[in-house]
Amino acid sequence: MAAFDPSSAHAHALDTSDPLAAFRAQFFQPANGAIYLDGNSLGLLSRPAEAAVIRALEDWKTRAIGGWLGAGWFDLAERLAGRLAPLVGAEADEVAVANSTTVNLHQLLATLYRPDGLQNKILAFAGEFPSDLYAIRSHLALRHHDARSVDELLTLLPAGDANDWIDEAAVERAFDDPRLQLAVLPAVVYTTGQLLDARRLATAAQRAGVILGFDLSHSIGIVPHSLTADGVDFAFWCHYKYLNAGPGAVGGLFLHRRHFDRAPGLAGWWGSHKERQFDMVREQTPARGAGALQIGTPPVLGMAALEGALAIIAEAGIAAIREKSLALTSYLMECVETLLPDDAGFRFANPREARRRGGHVALRHPAAGQFCRALRAADVITDFRPPDILRLAPVPLYNTFSECHAAVARLREIWEHSAHLRLAAERELVP
Q1: Is 422 a catalytic residue?
Q2: C-alpha 317: how far from its chain's center?
Q3: What's the confidence (pLDDT) of residue 424?
């Protein structure tokens, strides 16, 4: 194996041979020329997304209510579901574009959590994104009418080792609890970037009679999925991270077709069968498939941004995106190991193996929050997750190897000059 070349010239050479390099020009970069490594929180605006929103505004301006049929707003969610389906490895009718990420989790719990006698517990990861835990706890309290019973019915899976990774063998053992009815896990852990083996866990869940779902918020658009073939029961996600659909973009969900006979737990008129939706009858005829889990009228302007953003994803191809993502994160880790001295105190929180790694590099350091603020002051946009993780997320469609090299070089300068110690403390407010 050739020795790693830490020079900026090598980074430039990698950029020159990058087959996805041309896509960078399709994205608006930060106005101050900052290096943006925060796409796992909010992706950058693309030119196709901007153009799609402008078209939607023009249709609203010129067609008014006629846009529902004349501009195709009425079935826009279904068309987008068809374009998202290949990214998650599903059929179009198993995907819905609707609601928000947390609302979709509430909807899926309302639809699939069916406590039956002693089988009434839910399993989740203690290090799950907090909103997921909030939703699960509130759902248990509502269903069982006793907030005190929540702790009895929610099993929180602890991190399995010193790296705070999920122990998949421990998950399989947890499935053997005869009281367990449903489990919610992250496909990629939002802090450490650990990628779970969905097929392995879905197989174990089916064997134990447990319904298993995944939060794909930190994996969709950066990691290929095969939810239907893997046997995953349900999934939900956001579109504003690696799919670049804009702040607060509409959410998405997956429902395996073996659950199509379930009535939606939270009914709303946009979950109606399209041919019956405007009959305005008192009894709803739900759509067949995941579309039944839509609730209210969709946000057309927001979905327009997703429509434009997905065009770039489709053109690049999720396989090529994943290949470059692994190359960028591998290069970033090599830069950290080569350019930062051991006594700087950084260590990787993310797995090193490609098959276990999501789309970001997570550096653990006691002063991670201070380093994050210092990097932003040095025009490198990263983020911090308490208590000690600095996340760097190079996005294949718009980040370069040269940016990764420069970001680590600036991190070294900050450490050498103790610049992170001179910044006033402030709370991290970026979602």
Answers
A1: no
A2: 18
A3: 59
| Residue 234 among the catalytic residues | no
Does the active-site annotation cover 61? no
How many whole angstroms separate alpha carbon 65 and alpha carbon 59? 9
Average confidence score pLDDT of the chain: 94
| Cα 88–chain centre separation | 12
User: Of residues 391, 398, 401, 410, which has the active-site annotation?
Assistant: 391
pLDDT exceeds cutoff 70 at 430:
no
pLDDT attached to residue 358: 98
Q: Is 391 a catalytic residue?
A: yes
pLDDT of 72 above 70? yes
Which pLDDT score, from 0 to 100, does residue 151 have?
A: 86
Position 164 scores a pLDDT of: 83
Please state, in angstroms and as integers, the Cα–Cα distance from residue 70 to each residue in 52, 260, 302, following that order: 16, 31, 18
* CA dist., res. 11 & res. 5, Å (int): 9
CA 189/CA 350 separation, integer angstroms: 9
Mark whether 241 is an active-site residue: yes
* Architecture of domain 51-314 in this structure: 3-Layer(aba) Sandwich (3.40)
Q: Which residue has the tokens 């605006």?
A: 45
**Which of 36, 129, 175, 234 does the annotation list as catalytic?**
129
* Contact (CB, 8 A) for 370 and 423: yes
b/e per residue 292-327 (b: at least 16 CB within 10 A): bbbbeebbbebbbbbbbbbbbbeebebeebbebbbb
Say if residues 277 and 298 touch (Cβ distance below 8 Å). Answer: no
The residue count of the chain comes to: 431
- Which CATH architecture describes the domain 8-33+317-422? Alpha-Beta Complex (3.90)
- Per-residue pLDDT, 423: 75
How open is the CA angle 221-222-228, to the nearest 5 degrees? 65
Query: What number is the average pLDDT over the span 395-409?
Result: 98
The answer to whether residue 431 scores a pLDDT higher than 80 is no
CA distance 151 to 337: 42
One-character DSSP codes across 370-404: HHHHHHHHTTEE-EEETTTEEEEB--TTT--HHHH
Number of other residues whose CB lies within 10 A of the CB of residue 344: 17
Token digits for 85?
A: 């389906």
User: Of residues 24, 121, 241, 357, which has the active-site annotation?
Assistant: 241
Helix or strand or coil: residue 230? helix
CA-based nearest residue to 407, from 344, 324, 325, 333: 333
Q: Which of 38, 59, 164, 215 is the catalytic position? A: 215
Q: Between vectors from CA 113 to CA 107 and to CA 114, what angle results, nearest 5°?
A: 130
Per-residue pLDDT at 429: 52
Tokens standing for residue 305: 């941004």
Report domain extents, the chain: 8-33+317-422, 51-314
